[in-house]
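Letters spell out the chain; backbone shape is given numerically. Take this protein:
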Amino acid sequence: MKTCVIGIGYWGPNLVRNFISNSTIKSVAACDINPQRLQFIQERYPMIDVYDDYRKVLADPSIDAVAIATPVNLHYPMAKEALLAGKHVWVEKPLSYTSAHCEELVELADKHKLSLFVDHTFIYTSAVQKIREIVRGNELGDILYFDSVRVNLGLFQHDVNVIWDLAAHDISIMSYVLEQPIVAVVAHGIANYNSHENLAHISLYFAENCFAHFHVNWTSPVKIRRILIGGNKKMLVYDDMQTSEKVKVYDSGVKISTPEGRYDMLVQYRMGDMYAPQIHQSEALAVATEEFVASIMKAKPPLTDGRAGLKVVKILEAADASIKNRGKLIKIE
């Protein structure tokens, strides 16, 4: 198998490194319109081929798959051309900036029997895999809320706002872990420096009695990556900034009772033990690469396929529409 990474900017070199490390991928190429980036990657990996035009990549019959690590506005047109050229496609998140684009890409991949992989990298971390196992095993009980904070003094994107950049991560985690139908989205935020919001709060309403909230910010003095999941049995905290014990499960909760003859609620708090499940250390991008390769070799949809990417984009799209209309409730079908 031969692959080519299109876009050797911030994330592209990480893809090149992991593709080279995968034993099934026999040859890796790189493509970028910037000659300095091509020189950089070729100095680091002298064995790779380089291209200065992605259309040359698509016209090369020896290349089986491409990874698109370009700005978001280029994801859809490049992925569409690649699928039409018969290439398996890896796309960085988000898959595109409209759900209509995503639906078209999913249909093309299905029609041509090609793998369409969306790099929601956190899905492939051992921590998120363990969280899904705990939630799906009903250890937390019925899920009451999903609360996420992802803030840092970070990289301002020139083509998308903070929702599309940061919230995509935690929304993909939530979709993978909970798999509960979402009915509506509300978002608020502000653009302090340019036309793109740098701070936002997103609220998701579910068909069931569950609520999700996401706080994302490019202008925080501290870096926080934390998720809280509350159930009626136990509660879970995922702190990605911790070097160890990233996931902690608390035997804590609230019990509400209204004894006969009383009008006031009785609130009882349960404060039990905490434990940190064992989590195996592995690079998420290496695991993602294995999943992409396996989906091609076995002709099966990858874990984060186009449909998973579409699901996330629908939520991002609704949040963007809400924030542009000062917190208007946007229903999701």
User: Anything to note?
Assistant: The CA atoms of residues 146 and 174 lie 7 Å apart. The mean pLDDT is 94. DSSP finds nine helices and 15 strands in the chain. The chain has two domains: 2-120+284-301, 123-282+314-331.
